[in-house]
Amino acid sequence: MDTSLTDLTHDDYTVACICPMGIELAPVRAMLDIVHPALPTKRDVNSYTLGRMGVHNVVIAVMPEIGNSKAATVATQLLNDFRSIRFGLLVGIGGGVPCEGEADIRLGDVVVSKPTSTFGGVVQFDMGKIHPNGKFERTGTLKKPPAVLMANVHKLEAEHRVMGSQIMTYLSEMLNKYPMMEDEYSFPGADQDQLFEADYNHEGGKTCRKCDPDRTVERTRRKRATPRIHYGTIGSANEVIKDAQTRDKLREDLGILCVEMEAAGLMDEFSCLVIRGICDYADSHKNKMWQPYAAATAAAYAKELLSIIPAQEIVKTAKAADAFEKSKEQDRLLSLLPRDERAAFNSYDNQHDHLCLPDTRVDVLKEIEEWADSSGGRCIFWLKGMAGTGKSTIARTIARKCHNENRLGASFFFSSRSGGDLAHAGKFFTTLTWQLAKSSIAVRSAICDAIGKCSDISGQALRDQWEQLIVKPLSQLSDDTFRSPLVLVVDALDECHGENDIRVLLQLMGEARLLRTVQLRILITSRPENYIRHSFNQIPATAYQDFVLHNVSSLVIDKDISTFFRHYLNIIREERGFPPGWPGDQTIERLVQSASGLFIWAATACRFIENGGLFTEKRLSLILKGNPSVKGPEAKLNEIYSAILTNVVHEEYDEMEKEELYELLKATLGTVVTLFSSLPTVSLEKVLQIPQQDIYQTLDDLHSVLEVPKNMHQPIRLHHPSFRDFLLDKQRCDEHFWVDEKKAHGAITASCLRIMSLTLKRDICDLRSASTLTSEVDSSRVEKCLSVDLQYACRYWVQHLGRSEASIVNDSQVYEFLQDHFLHWLEALSLIEKISEAVNTIAELATYLSTLQNSIDAHLYDFVRDAKRFILKSRSVIELAPLQVYNSALVFTPTKSIVKNLFLNQAPSWIKRMPAVEDKWGALLQTLDNHTRSVYSVAFSPDGRLFATTSSDNTVRVWDPKTGAPQGTFEGHSDVVRAVAFSPNGQVLASGSSDKTIKLWDPRLGTLFYTLEGHSDWIRSVIFSPDGQILVSASSDKTIKMWDLNTNQLSRTIEGHSDWVKAVVYSPDGRLLASASSKAVWLWDPRTGMSSGILEGHSDWVRAVTFSPDGQLLASASCDKTVRLWDVKTRTLRGILEGHSEWVRSVAFSPDGQTLASASTDKTIKLWNAQTRALCNTLEGHEGWIRGISFSPDSQLLVSASSDSTIKLWDPTRRTDNTFDPRSALEPHSDGIWAVAHSSDGQYLASASFDTTVKIWDIKTGVLHKTLQGHSSSVWAVAFSPDCQLLASSSADKTVKLWDPKEGTLIKTLEGHSATVWTVSFSPDGRFFVSASEDTTLRLWNPITKEALQVLWLPVDQRPTCLSVLNNAIVIGYMSGRLTFIELDTVALLDHDESSGQTAAVSPQFQMETAQSRALKRKQQNL
């Protein structure tokens, strides 16, 4: 062996060969020119053979077992061991897919993967979904081989055409070199190559000696025994194919030449070329005779290919490991996108849906195809038509055509009958994005970059999702990425719940016309509902074209329906063995007339006839008996639906049996059509309390109107929503089948309560640790522990309750459920990532209960109101970690909270004494902290459904005031955004900025309408005129400008101020403008721009002005710490409001005129009686200046904006008479040293600094002892252990570090916090220490094991700045000066082992005692 070979390292190997079995490994090894010595690897997982083939150093790996998953494992480890591999060759055997006249594939031939216009060389199909008739579902295509390989494959293919292959030469050399291989790896002989007819199965035995030779396929004998090379698509699966009909079906549908079992798993890991020697024909006659020779021919081709690739070409190619890691990271990023895979036109759930038959819908399909092909066409095609006119079939046909042409970007088929995510817009853009990422490598890369920059994009507003996930990635592509328009198909938009969401979707999709790098074509189908037509009217006419399907000539439609009937009735005829010509032209003509132009009628009729079995002709006759006097599409639908339902109730049943069946049908169908999301049979069994088999048998005769899968775990769906409309309409449906919608909802409500009561429990997923994040819980675990029916019940029980009759569901059932399982319910919603729905659900319940007036238990109503406050306060914590509902949520809830007192025994056992909190709920409802810097202003929309805030982070944010959920972030300003206002109709949002511009936005879409420029300094205030025609702005340039919103032009500039204009406001009648500048309030006539007076009296700057709702009073807020009230008519002072200790920066009247609110830099809001001017309340909670306040239109909500970067939502009607334990406040340091601490022995002093170091000083001498370096950001706190053996430091780098203070060495870095760790403290006995972080958690640590003991989440509005541990009590300090005490049970804390699950487990005895105590409490309440 060459001595230089000993110098080879892992990085010297650039080519990988992977062989599935030893029989395939042997010839590849034999093709090596030199065998290299083995190299050590990090893990002894793979078995490698090393050597040189031509000029390339090659790694050969053999798989432990065959199959896709094993190939993926081998590839992953190989790339970890050999980081310089550029590409891979998968060399082995496969089953040939011969095709007469196209691919004359013989045994021993070689098939090489080669990309086509449809696939990347390999296509994966799911063998588990192959049906008896040979139908299957393809689940994915795989990556193309690297360019360097494909270029040389093409080169070698050309050389073979001229000079032939060298395969026989290499085989001969192999056998000469290794004579032991001759017996096994020689050519078996052409006479042993037999291809049998596809419908002829093997007769048994290891060979085909018993098989009939007359059933072989006659093929021309080849002149030479040289193997031929075939290039094309290889099919890969995890199951061996031994069925010729399935094989031929694969060839017909996918054009594959070979089938095998490893390529899918391998190519999913890194790009490679697949080389397969053909050893059988993938039929029942397969045997092992040809396997060795086929493996050898594949190995010989691999060697010949490598022989023509120069070494320098390979070195220039990117390393496969880098591409692999990049691909994995992209996979991870894409997995962050919530999606519904059922939405795609070709999803498994949609596989049985029809396409347009040939020669049908010719005109409309032609028009859509021409639109999709046009380079300068409009971006949207709106196909509209009434129910049942065939819109979805047309959409599916277009999607299939574009998919086959590789130009379908994505598709989303809305479905109200399927429910869930297919019935709303929540996952619309994320699902489209996920599909778009598969359209090209460039798109995938751009989309993944976008997700990486904003990982929480899926939770943001639709506008942000559209721009970040679709518009920006597509805009970054080169002009030649897509040479023809890219098509998106959106079907049944009218089945998307939420008219506002539909409006938003249409507005956003209309912006596709602005894309320059990609021509996006969006096909949208829907019913012509008024709100959809209105939404299209808001889009520029140049952005879309439409087609009215129900206006197509009846002659054309009848012809298409006739073709449809002939096609499907002919299939039925063949299946049933009816004579040719059945059922006859006259019958088909009558059926066409009965359809009345509705394809849904025709499809329903065919399904009804097909499912008749022995009674097929009887069912046909039943349909033909239709009443000739019945006219019109709806009447015809009523008739066929009635006939189908009547047919279920057989005449031979007696009356009692019929009545029983009627009730069973009503119960089952009533549930199916009133569910908000489709459920499978196994879940319906629990909802209805009817055995699965009974449900299936009841619906078995209704396959014509329902999709009833044999798989009990797949959902039952309506074929068409018109059947639901029919069942719920008493005027259309027979009383035996009519579903009373309110009663159906009531029954489902009761079932939901029963399911939840029986199933919900604490720590339902056995997480054990309260520190477990929702994001860390595996989805399969959630699905296992929370069944589909339980998840449904948790999400929808209140919606069903609200739609039921008030008397149906006893309120005591609701009360008992909430008393026993309220926290369990919140935990479950957190686990399924739907906790945000809890706010709306409880609010909806409160609204529902309020409509019942005095007919409900008052205790229930009080509980629900308290529960709403509980959720609002703790939602963000519970959303983050499910089990914190029992920890943080309970700990920091007011003392007299109904929820807290009821579930106090569920609080953490390791907390002996709770921290001091409010006595009862105060005025503060929620704290929002999404802005990253000071919040300057706030304004409500006129309808109260939104409020907007502005900030020095240069953004405008829009919020849902009901839940506190962000609705959008508007970016565009380049400096502080200081002012915001909604137009009177709520359609425009104006923002003014220090960048000297005003921007006009669509508040729901975030679309920038226009930018107004003209001011020469900061914009400080903006306001719309009451009629919405004028926008007025105030600026530091000492002017007020009035803008005409019809032209977006400046109409007037008002001058006269001698200093900055801080604020401007219109009087309610629009006849007066008031502005604040210097120490005065200026009044102006907006019609002339002339001064109307000056109100003087303040002794310092006037910061804000506002009119009372009736226009009689004007309030001004000043830096002189007062609010002055002025009589608008007489221009005289009516009163002075005093009480603030610092500047008053903002003032606002409540819309009902009863309250005046003032906000100050003293961090308080004061509420005054507008009539008596008496102080009613002082709201405290902000830790910084309060810059802006705004009332909701109903006066029930007040929002404040502060320099502490938070927004707070207040209930202005609630008095804040709560008090806290009066403990001392801690003042923050003002210099570069954040904290100091001394050791208990008096020897050392430690200081923490913003320079990222900790310095230890000798106290006696003042000499620096050690400088501790290791933190990567500011050090915020230091603490010595009581025995002086440890020093702990906490930092903005999110870590706590433990040091040896004497030696100055680092002992360990403790990780777990996700933000700055503000402070750290040891217990007096040194048995534990505590760290507090900006991530709003306390973490308790064991200093001996250096591991975490417990985690406690703090409310958003309680961020700690310091803490201390004294006598087993944690004392937490806040910037506001407030202190919180938490007393610990140290025995329970230190004995606690998270792995034992003690904090989560509840003993049966405890559960029984808890249930008994609650039952006793309910009894006492009833008394």
Automatic annotation (TrEMBL):
One of its GO terms (biological process) is nucleoside metabolic process. It comes from Orbilia ellipsospora. GO terms for molecular function: catalytic activity. Pfam families: NPHP3_N, PNP_UDP_1, WD40. SMART domains: WD40 (SM00320). WD repeats lie at residues 928-969, 970-1011, 1012-1053, 1054-1094, 1095-1130, 1137-1178, 1179-1211, 1226-1267, 1268-1309, 1310-1351. The keyword Zinc does not apply. InterPro entries: NPHP3-like_N, Nucleoside_phosphorylase_d, Nucleoside_phosphorylase_sf, P-loop_NTPase, WD40/YVTN_repeat-like_dom_sf, WD40_PAC1, WD40_repeat_CS, WD40_repeat_dom_sf. The lineage of its organism: Eukaryota, Fungi, Dikarya, Ascomycota, Pezizomycotina. PROSITE patterns: WD_REPEATS_1, WD_REPEATS_2, WD_REPEATS_REGION. Residues 14-290 form the Nucleoside phosphorylase domain. Keywords: Repeat, WD repeat. The keyword Disulfide bond does not apply. Residues 366-527 form the Nephrocystin 3-like N-terminal domain. This is Uncharacterized protein.
